[in-house]
Amino acid sequence: MTTDVETWQLGHRTEEASGQALARWDRHPVTVVRPAKGVATGRFLCMTCDEAVDYVAASTRVRNRRLRWRRWRARAGCYAGRFLFVMMVLSAISPLPPAVLMATRGEWLLAFLLLPFTALYGWFATVALPYVHYREPAPRDDEKVRLATRSPVHELRS
Q1: For residue 99, how many other CB atoms are within 10 A of its CB?
Q2: SS3 sequence, 63-97?
Q3: Which of 19, 88, 105, 124 is the most buried (most CB within 10 A)?
Q4: Which of 135, 119, 137 lies closest to 127 in space, CA to CA?
């Protein structure tokens, strides 16, 4: 099995703007070696402070397997959301023709009692609407390359 090599950027905080949350960062490219299996740690040297910085990287195989599983779940959730949306829209529309028919016959009370179901199912359809669109899942923190320990002066970016 082979290892994968990626280029990331190691940032070193050089100065902090006074009174602001913004800071200046010196960035330089670093090579990250992903292991063939599992999770491994590595080390590279910060060019600004000459300090050794440890990183943790999961293998490409682990990352892809986790992403594939999350994509499958996202697609299944999207299809379930679409089905739920269609069912709720149909449930919201279906009481309307009988309600109109009852109202034309003078049965106003029964027609009026059917309208809360229309409103309720319409509300359910509105709540299900955001789940209809497929969103591509991004890698989580445990799948990305990250620093082994939190550092106030270093950060790692892709």
Answers
A1: 20
A2: HHHHHHHHHHHHHHHHHHHHHHHHHHHHHHHCCHH
A3: 88
A4: 119
pLDDT tens digit sequence for 54-94: 988 888 887 888 889 989 988 898 888 888 888 888 888 88
Strand order in the sheet with 39-45: 39-45, 52-58, 146-147
The whole-angstrom distance between residue 21's C-alpha and the CA centroid of its chain comes to 26
Q: HSE on the CB side for 108, CA within 13 Å?
A: 1
pTM: 0.56
Residue 136 CB coordination number (10 Å): 8
Count CB neighbours of 34 within 10 A.
Answer: 20
> Tokens 């991004």 — which residue?
138
Counting Cα atoms < 13 Å in the Cβ hemisphere of 44 gives 24
